[in-house]
UniProtKB/TrEMBL annotation:
SUPFAM superfamilies per UniProt: Glyoxalase/Bleomycin resistance protein/Dihydroxybiphenyl dioxygenase (SSF54593)
InterPro entries registered for this protein in UniProt: Catechol_2-3_dOase, Glyas_Bleomycin-R_OHBP_Dase, Glyas_Fos-R_dOase_dom, GlyoxalaseI/FosfomycinResist, VOC_core, Xdiol_ring_cleave_dOase_1/2, XylE-like_N
Gene Ontology MF terms in the entry: catechol 2,3-dioxygenase activity; ferrous iron binding
Cited Pfam families: Diox-like_N (PF22247), Glyoxalase (PF00903)
Gene that encodes it: dmpB
UniProt-recorded name of the protein: Metapyrocatechase
Protein species of origin: Amphritea japonica ATCC BAA-1530
Keyword Membrane: no
EC id: 1.13.11.2
Keyword annotations of the record: Aromatic hydrocarbons catabolism, Dioxygenase, Iron, Metal-binding, Oxidoreductase, Repeat
Assembly and interaction partners: Homotetramer.
Names of the cofactor(s): Fe(2+)
PANTHER family in alphabetical order: GLYOXALASE FAMILY PROTEIN (PTHR21366)
Amino acid sequence: MRKGVMRPGHIQIRVLDVEEALKHYRDLIGLIEVERDAQGRVYLKGWTEVDKFSVVLREADEPGMDFVGYKVLDNQTLEKLHGELIEHGCNVEEIPAGELNGCGRRIRFDSPTGHMFEIYAEKERTGKWGVENVNPEAWPRGLKGMKATRFDHCLLYGPNIKGTLDLFRDVLGFELAEQVLDPEGTRIAQFLTVGMKAHDVAFIEHPEPGKFHHASFILDTWEDVLRAADLISMEDVSLDIGPTRHGLTHGKTIYFFDPSGNRSEVFCDGDYHYPDHEPVTWQAEQLGKAIFYHDRVLNDRFLTVLT
């Protein structure tokens, strides 16, 4: 049942050198640099996103992800979910408005997989970059690199993905769109959606908590994904795998690494999900085809390199 969570709103990623990271996220992926704050964090967004930012880069000693935030309908929804998160047993912290520039009060909470999440109701609305809201043109001039349109989802590794499914489904209203089951019927991967997309967040069962696999950004077409591959080669960026197609979600994709070792994905297309859809199931013995539909072979680096 939908509970008032609308969409992924932002992700804060740790990088070793913020200026080097900007060559990746701004100049290569094509996100728009919005501003920097007193802490030295850099705020970025995809050009179609109406809120002020969706990606925050924080310079740190270790790469990885600090948290992912989801936008809810209004402050009444925020208060209701705040109480339900406490009742569910999460460790909950209130983050005051303005701690992230332009963002209202946030409710941060932990999860069984060891990741930190937050919900919020208010963020400064700056509109799509370079495109008016009345009689808009098709796209803005001046976009860089891959011309990513928005931050779409992230994939996270940690233990007890069942407990995190319970949290996201029962409290936040996400639905299980797709899953991978082992021969005993245990779920080892899950793809959760809060709207019609194939997934807004995904989890893989893993013994070490709080690990970050990738942040993903949308491109318009398969041709754009192929062009992204050209740019990766032109810039001598570390490639993980692709271009290829997933069996899971059927998105067309390519994976590569930022200078700090965090993995990025750009992709297009993919399945959709309505509330009356049953979860799509893949069997673990078909995991190679599920992840890399064309060559049907697992890439050890894809499965084991995490931040």
